[in-house]
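Interim report, section 4.2 (structural modelling).
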Amino acid sequence: MTEQKISDGQGLGIAGLVLGILAIPLGIIPCTFFIALIFGVVGIVLSSIALSQASRHKAAKGLIIAALVCSILGTAFAMFWGLTLGRGAKVFEKVMKKEFREEFGKEFEDAFDSFSEEMEDVLEELEEDLDDEADTLEKNLEEANEESDL
Amino acid sequence: MRNRIYRESYIKINLIFGVIILLIFIYSGIFSTEKQNHPIPSFYLEISGERPLSSGLSGSFSEIIRGNFNNAKNYNIYGMRIFIFFAAQLFFRIVFSFIYHYKILFHRLVILSDCTISSLFFITCFWPFILNILNHI
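Predicted structure of the assembly:
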């Protein structure tokens, strides 16, 4: 019974310490910050449960406190990369929008202008053709009328 | 009684870390850069589209495991440092567990030296990554 009381929370403490220690290098490495975040948060939860169990039964707390510290440190590193990435993503979005407007906006404008110019030319040509056709029709009609009068 | 618990805990933790480091080496051995079949993606690269300092570490580890040290540098310049850290940790886990189990030194002294040596070694090997974090602040 005494042994049970003294060792209360030690299993969870060991699990928390392992996860916390793993979270530190994984959190420092930018590529694996997401895994570190999971390990760190789970480590904090396990260590907190272990700490409450140990406090309740007045068991040894050294290992559990070490687990909590390591988990918090690992989570902090992981969160740092997460926040940097979030900030970076916003900047990236703004830059991309600006670049899109500058690069493609101009292209679209130029393309639209050239298209409208072409359309105007085509319309003018069509109008000229229609006028010519109308003139020839009128001439033909006049000739036909003259022939019938004669 | 408390001493026994700590003794068991220390050995257990060393054993767990030893197994994890061995699994990392097996992972690097199974997946190769030739096949490009590493299953863990770079979350940072995927989200930001920017190549981080740690990009290519898995590839570098795979090359080191196969003895291609020059190729390992091409994948990640700091791959060797990090690999040495893990290899040294595996060695430390075995040595410190041995010292602890056979009571060659006082238990507190073993734990304290382990924490100090491992922390200093960690800072030395991960220094470029720590500097990277400091530069981003």
